[in-house]
Write a structure and sequence with these properties.
- The complex is a heterotrimer of chains A (about 775), B (about 140) and C (about 120).
- Helices cover about 75% and strands about 0% of the residues of chain A.
- Chain A is mainly α and about 775 residues long.
- Chain A has a two-stranded antiparallel ribbon with strand order 1-2.
- The longest helix of chain A is centred in the N-terminal third of the chain and has 32 residues.
- Helix content of chain B is about 70%, strand content about 5%.
- A two-stranded antiparallel sheet of chain B has the order 1-2.
- In chain B, helix 1 runs antiparallel to helix 2, helix 2 crosses helix 3 and helix 4 packs antiparallel against helix 6.
- The chains are: A mainly alpha (about 775), B mainly alpha (about 140), C mainly alpha (about 120).
- The interface between A and B is large, with 47 and 56 residues.
- Chain B: One of its GO terms (cellular component) is plasma membrane.
- Chain B: It is a multi-pass membrane protein.
Chain lengths: ~775, ~140, ~120
């Protein structure tokens, strides 16, 4: 399981090499991994259908109770299957869509890393590792939206997406930590099985709000929805994968995952139903005001996300069945439709569907499968989308709160997506043939594979409902805490209220669709008003204030005089530390006169004193550098004298290199000159003496007081038997505290790269 | 840095450098048991190359080294990172030290371990970092 | 011995702060070097100073025969020395570069040159 999740990252590492070798077949080659993963996850299905959840654990930081553990049940498995399955087609599709793009290797790298992170999110059992993967999806999404990094608009959209999702991510982290603290475990499986009734805990409301903030931003719920349509600046494969089928569903996933633990609260039901319902309606409404194929689909995705959140909020048995069915249906048709939008854009050279027409004769296969997928979107029988929609109506009718409002919103949303489906399926392909910037042809096989398979599955699942019912919906309902044996999907329920609602929305939709072109101008006015006063405008205002406050406080705090900063820092430290020291230990603090025990040590100490003082008063650079050398070697002698051979050797070697460094650079700088006035010097001397006295007192206090035993006793004892090393200092460096050392060599490497780049910058300046 | 004209320094550098490099490897390998280890060995090795650079000039030193010091830097960091993961494969927490004893022809055993890999990473990083800086600086000097 | 070193370290800190408050950038570098030496010695002193007891285990033994100097601060200082060198190199080059671009070595004048 570990390998399955991490394999995406590993493949991402070598993806550029694969690209270089297999060239235009790279998409097909790389798609082998998600395909294999799909098969592998599918092999878990029978087990999960029979026994329910499994947890697989690998230790990560056991000391902090952070495990890398994976939870496999109906819910996570369904997501894993969607991610790897759709991922397979997306990689193949990207091979065709981005054919010949110079940065295609980078695209594959980030895409595979994203896929692996997404698998991590849905499979993680540990809240912390879930959060880490969650943030990784935000970062990879940022890189993918901004893939076309020379485009200002793409960069801005990428940053917007990152800001919104990362802000939510912070809230989510707080929420997850609260969750872990309340239940006493960071394992999801424990949280879900916990006896604690979360909704009665005093922290429940902040906890709920934090988790919702994370999930709502990620899953583009109103009022955080605006980043998703802007994210359409990404290449189409990205939009199809991240922003319709997978990443935006991470929030939905987490809500569904937590619903058994938190869903019994009224606040949860109310907030989720309300925000989900609003998002559903607004998304559908905004969809029909747009003519760009991708924007239109993006808004219909927002509608779908809202529907899913609302269904989780309602939380009845019907709602859970509807949730699972609608989720599968949506991923299938939306993935297909996005890829088709990409095909249209790729073949005609325009994104605006109102500029297309009559393409059916030129692209018959695309046209057929567009219609199939769009029918599923519009919820027409016998497609899976219809089943999902019927169940959704059924669930809304049984909603515990806000019933009336939700029904109105649901019918409105139903109308909206039907119109949207009509626009996407009929406008480009039928009617009069229109001239487009490029002359369209049928798309290549690599680009058709995804839409064809996904659209066919929508149809197949609709006709053979027992397949999704047994394999996916049942296990999902089980993992949400429902009863799988009561799940029964069917196309025909007899004439009942949901069917009538479907019929009603179909009639209204047909009416709107007939006048769509004529309605466009007035819809566009509405859209612009929304842009001026909507939440996105709020986002821009916040960002503007942020920069204004930042520049104001920078002007105040950072006035540019180095000396002032330093005096502030030193004096603050002296006052705070000095106050604590004297108030806590002032009575016990002794200031003894050093004993004259070792003449050798005394002479070294004297040497250090003299060199420190000489360095500060001399007017010659050479004198200062020489006295620093004396200082360095004296320190080395102290180290050697007092049982630290490793330190002594290191200090001597570094001292030698320092001299070389100073010779190379420092003597090309001007000599010492007196720049400051006597008054300033006097002030500085006072500050310096304060600092020095504080340090002396600190050392005296620290050597006098011993609050607890040094932790190194255990390291000394375990060095030889457990770490097989007799030089304890080295064992600490490379074994006991290797993580520190790892960080330190990275700092060293950064310093070296910094030096290198500064010098090479200069070389460029001189050349120009 | 222009190359030095002192015959003594040039001759001495030629003899001293291989000895110093050898000594640095010795320090690196014995570091787990006696004073030494990656940091010290790395400093000794870079000192050796810097001595050569001072007597023969930066171009000679570069061609002597064959690889770009920046590659050493990257290799060092990769070694350091590589030592982190073997523990995960055998089911221990991340970064747990792993030891492998390989029987050698002649009856001895070769002790290999992730701390050793890590120490080699430290060694390479130190050498790479210092040489990257010194090469860049002396290049700038000789260009100026 | 710790008492004596306490005074020495205090003087070193004072000298370091004084040098870092000078307006000449070269003196700033000297101050940085003093500061890192002083900090290392501070840790070393606070951990307790012992003569003739390096933290090494004799061959064949499982633990040192007598009490040894505390190895943990030594390990921390060892990396600190090397890092201090890296940071020093970085700051020296940065300062040199700033001097070249701005054309002054007076820190107070550097702030007015927004280049």
């Amino acid at each position: 399981m570990l390998i399955a999740v991490l394999s995406g990252f590993l493949l991402a590492l070598i993806a550029p090499a694969v690209c270089a070798v297999s060239r235009e077949w790279a998409g097909w080659t790389l798609a082998l991994l998600p395909a294999a993963l799909f098969a592998w996850f599918a092999s878990y299905l029978p087990g999960v259908m029979a026994d329910g959840a499994q947890v697989i654990t690998y230790p990560w930081f056991p000391a902090l109770d952070i495990q890398l553990s994976f939870l496999i049940d109906g819910l996570s498995l369904m997501f894993a299957l969607l991610i790897s399955g759709i991922g397979t087609f997306i990689l193949i599709y990207a091979g065709g869509y981005l054919k010949g793009h110079p940065d295609i290797a980078r695209f594959y790298v980030v895409m595979l890393a994203f896929m692996a992170s997404m698998l991590g999110v849905v499979l993680s059992d540990n809240l912390i590792s879930l959060f880490v993967f969650w943030e990784l999806t935000s970062i990879t999404s940022y890189l993918l939206i901004g893939f076309d990094h020379e485009d200002m608009n793409a960069r801005r959209s990428a940053l917007q997406g990152l800001f919104v999702t990362a802000a939510g991510g912070l809230a989510l982290m707080a929420g997850l930590v609260m969750l872990g603290t309340i239940t006493g475990s960071y394992a999801l499986s424990d949280v879900l099985a916990s006896e604690t009734v979360l909704s009665e805990h005093p922290w429940f409301t902040p906890l709920l709000l934090c988790v919702l903030a994370g999930c709502f931003t990620k899953s583009a719920q109103v009022p955080f929805h605006f980043w998703l349509p802007n994210a359409m600046a990404a290449p189409t494969p990205v939009s199809a994968f991240l922003h319709s089928a997978t990443m935006v569903k991470a929030g939905v996933y987490l809500l569904a995952r937590l619903s058994p633990a938190m869903g019994d609260s009224e606040l949860w039901t109310l907030l989720l139903s309300l925000f989900g319902g609003m998002t559903m309606f607004l998304g559908a409404f905004m969809a029909i005001t747009h003519t760009g194929a991708k924007k239109l689909l993006a808004y219909s995705t927002i509608m779908a996300l809202g529907t899913l959140v609302m269904l989780i909020g309602i939380g009845t048995h019907y709602a859970m069945v509807a949730f699972a069915t609608f989720l599968i249906a949506h991923s299938l048709y939306k993935g297909a439709l996005f890829m088709i939008a990409g095909i249209l854009d790729h073949e005609t050279g325009t994104k605006d569907v109102s500029e297309m027409g009559g393409l059916a004769r030129l692209m018959p296969i695309t046209a057929i499968f567009t219609v199939v997928a769009a029918l599923s979107l519009a919820a027409v029988p016998p497609l899976l989308g219809f089943v999902g929609k019927e169940l959704m109506f059924e669930a809304v009718l049984g909603a515990p709160v806000l019933g009336g409002l939700l029904i109105v919103l649901a019918v409105g949303a139903g109308v909206g997506v039907m119109v949207a489906a009509g626009v996407i399926a009929i406008k480009p392909f039928f009617g009069e043939r229109r001239e487009t910037p490029k002359h369209p042809h049928e798309a290549p096989v690599s680009m058709l594979a995804g839409p064809v398979v996904l659209a066919s599955l929508s149809l197949l699942f609709g006709l053979a409902l027992f397949i999704p019912e047994q394999a996916l919906v049942g296990p999902v309902v089980t993992s949400l805490g429902g009863a799988a044996d009561k799940v029964h999907l069917s196309l025909w329920h007899g004439i009942n209220v949901p069917l009538m609602l479907s019929g009603l929305s179909l009639v209204i939709a047909l009416a709107i669709f007939a006048f769509w072109s004529r309605l466009q101008p007035s819809l566009a006015i509405l859209r612009e008003a929304g842009g001026r006063f909507g939440p996105e405008a709020g986002y821009f205002r916040i960002m503007e204030w942020l920069t204004r406050i930042a520049s104001w406080q920078t002007r105040v705090l950072q006035n540019g005089t180095m000396g002032n900063y330093l005096i502030t820092l030193v004096m603050t430290t002296v006052l705070i530390t000095g106050y604590t020291l004297l108030s806590q230990h002032g009575s016990t603090l002794r200031v003894p006169v050093p004993a004259l025990d070792s003449g050798f040590a005394w002479s070294i100490a004297l040497l250090m004193l003299v060199s420190a003082l000489f360095a500060s008063i001399t007017r010659s650079r050479l004198g200062a550098v020489a006295s620093m050398g004396v200082m360095g070697f004296s320190v080395a002698l102290i180290f050697i004298l007092f049982s630290a051979p490793d330190l002594g050797i290191t200090q001597i070697l570094v001292e030698t290199l320092t001299v070389i460094l100073l010779v190379l650079v420092l003597f090309r700088l001007p000599g010492f000159i007196r720049l400051s006035s006597p008054l300033e010097r006097g002030r500085d001397i006072v500050v310096a003496i304060f600092a020095g006295v504080l340090m002396t007192l600190l050392i005296l206090a620290a050597t006098d007081l011993q609050f607890f035993d040094p932790i190194s006793a255990e390291q000394v004892a375990r060095s030889a038997p457990d770490a097989h090393g007799r030089n304890i200092v080295n064992v600490i460096l490379v074994d006991f505290r290797a993580l520190d050392t790892l960080g330190e060599i990275f700092v060293l490497a950064l310093a070296a790269v910094g030096v290198y780049s500064m010098i090479n910058l200069r070389a460029e300046d001189q050349r120009s | 840095m222009n190359e030095s004209n002192t015959l003594i320094l040039r001759t001495a550098a030629l003899f001293l450098m291989p000895l110093q490099l050898l000594f640095s490897v010795f320090l690196l390998l014995r570091g787990h048991d006696e004073p030494g280890g990656g940091f010290i060995a790395g400093l000794v090795a870079s000192g050796a190359v810097v001595l050569f650079l001072f007597s023969y000039g930066v171009r000679e030193a570069r061609s002597l080294l064959r690889v770009d010091p920046r590659d050493l830097l990257a290799a060092g960091l990769l070694f350091g990172l590589a030592s982190v993961f073997p523990a995960l494969l055998v089911g221990d927490p991340l970064m747990t030290a792993q030891w492998w004893y390989l029987p050698m022809p002649g009856g001895g055993t070769l002790k290999l371990s992730t701390p050793l890999i890590f120490d080699i990473g430290v060694y390479l990083t130190v050498v790479g970092a210092i040489l990257t800086m010194v090469f860049a600086l002396s290049q700038a000097e000789s260009d100026a | 011995m710790e008492t004596l070193m306490a005074y020495v370290v205090g003087v070193m800190f004072a000298a370091a702060v004084y040098m870092m408050l000078r307006r000449s950038i070269v003196k700033l570098v000297i101050g940085l070097m003093l500061l890192s030496n002083a900090a290392n010695l501070l840790i070393f002193t606070v951990a307790g100073m012992k003569q003739g007891a390096p933290p090494l285990i004799p061959e064949g033994a499982e633990a040192p025969a007598t009490a040894v100097a505390d190895p943990l601060p030594q390990a921390l200082i060892l990396t600190a020395i090397v890092i201090a060198f890296g940071v020093l190199a970085f700051s020296v080059v940065l300062i040199h570069r700033a001097y070249e671009v701005v054309g002054t070595d007076d820190l107070d004048q550097m702030k007015d040159t927004d280049t």
